Fold each of these.
Amino acid sequence: MAPSQTANCPRAIDTDELLGRCLGNLQFAEWILSVFEQRGTIDLADLEQAIEERDLVRVAAISHRLKGACANISAYDLTQRIGQLREAACAEDLVEVAEQYHELTNNWADFLAARADLNWGTDVAEPPSVASD
């Protein structure tokens, strides 16, 4: 599947922009998505725990870090949702934090579906090597 053929979830991952950031290197883009997915899974579990503990300072900190990572991989729905979650945490609105976290899990599922639809034919076991002149 060509990168531009992922139009079913265009805001889940903007593959054209991601590939631009990766200078067209499919293997590097795939590796970045793989690392992001692994770290994002951990961050979501940490967010859930912080919400359960009503630790809004921690929710805001995790959200801030995760929002930047989402923006870096051009995952715009996740970026927007996490920004809303962070705002709710900073406003100390537990009800809104819980609602935004619930919606975040839906956006995460969309991201995972878009990620699964990508078939760039690359191996991501380790970071790609960079050729030097």
Amino acid sequence: MNKGILNQDMETTGSKPTGVKGTLAGMIMNLIHANQYGKIIQRHLAGNLEPSAELSILDVGCGGGKAISIFSSIIKKARIYGIDHSMEMVKLSRKTNRKDITGGKIKIVQGTVNKLPFASEMFDIATAFDTISFWNDMDNSINEVKRVLKHGGLFSIVNGYPAPGTKWYDIVKFKNADEYRAFLTGHGFRQIEIVIEKNTIIIKAFK
């Protein structure tokens, strides 16, 4: 597919994919992200993922569910939840993870980050893969993520980190690593680790 067309589709449908076009975009992004997310999870998060541990994980803005399926393949006893405000993405994520949903390991729900339908201190790990730039009400949303994390829990952000002057630089809400760090520390997160790889920023922050 032409990259220009793909980028235009991702920009127009990324905030809330809808209809056939949104589902198609989600399927394409699943294909694109399978390798990228797998490498990021293995390189940067695997140290926090004990394969035999009974971890609870939440993927915020789960899209087509590719990150969830990767986590599920690594951690055999995990309970993994995904949430997305697009019903098309919820359906696609459920299809992607059908086997583990049937087995009770994974649950995908529709909802918004600024009002998460989960109990306080429910999760060991929360993630946001390429979704934080689409959050509305940033302060309330990050407070909700913090609320549902256990004490000492990990919040990981993976997001595009485009160069100044590019179209994507105008789209992302945080323009540099310092802005991410200030945002997270301002909401009580600590021990913040930041790595930048090939126009992608990978952040780990602890509650």
Amino acid sequence: MKKPSVTNLIKLLDKPALLSWANRIGLQGTKLSEYRKNRMKFGTSVHKEIEQFLQYGIVPENDYFYESLLEFFSEIDVLGVEQKIETDYFQGRYDILLKKGDHTYVCDFKSNHKRNYFENYLQLSAYRMATGADKVAIISVPDMIWFELDIEDFKPYENILISLSNIYITKKLLKH
């Protein structure tokens, strides 16, 4: 059986904050499906621009974004971009692995990120399990703002991920 993705594991969790978010979008007169489609398109575009900038030196069309990228990556060593990862429990793809100061970080790009959610801790803990990075962070795009997640002990998150993997696989085997 194919290993579940990190995204599929996190989808197993209840996310009560999404209800109020979806309600707020609806009250603005926007269809949730259209909103998500537009945000995904924006996120994919920004991810691609960052990847092309880092891997091939292709300059983004937006001058402000280009300047933000230059400044952000001036003190960072990029170790990997959009790399596939796999453990005994899941598979996935991280956005960026980098060295900042004396530490390696596995990071995820998030559009206009403002606060860290439990799911962010799980996702980045999963990537850390696979990469062995020292620390984890979110990089808010397109403004390139750094959000380090302060996790002293990754073990509880790793245990949750292993449990979610077991639940996912068991559900697939039951075929309900």
Amino acid sequence: MKRRRATRTRRALFALAHLFLVACQDEPPEPPPCHADCEDGIALRSLRETMKLVYNITLQGNPEGEQDETTACPLGGRARVFGTATSNPVQGATEVELTYELAGCRYLELDDEPEETYEMTIDGTVTQSGVMAVQPTATTALLMRSESVTLDGNVFDPPRPFHGESCALEVAQSGNDLSGLFCGREVGVDLGGQPN
């Protein structure tokens, strides 16, 4: 009788252990940790990708030369971009000296990668100068500056609140690498696959 009880107990424990293992396997993996530098990188990504969106909505396809366009941002707010954009077909690039005025401009990116996911509202003026790659033969080389830009929203997945108030910005983009100073902190992000 003791042997039967021991066998039943072992079978019950084995069944419970099996259920526990199966239940654990069905849970999605935990996302990697995202500390302050990670959050800053996502916020910087959101700014760069918002500027890219505004450029594509307003200036892409315009004749080269002086530019001055205003648009509603797709999720709220508005943006104005003005300055010069000159095409260089031999290099497959566009040379720009542009100013972006963002007023409550909201943008959202939901990605499979948690560090590429954000929902951000941006206020401020950012200048952009340098070369945007249009063809694979060129490399994007841009400098972006602002005396005061405010970003407010969420970064990462699961979302974490982010707020950068009246931040100075001085960052450079070389190819897919975006790095520099944001709110007095060094920050960097690999834009991977985001050429301009």
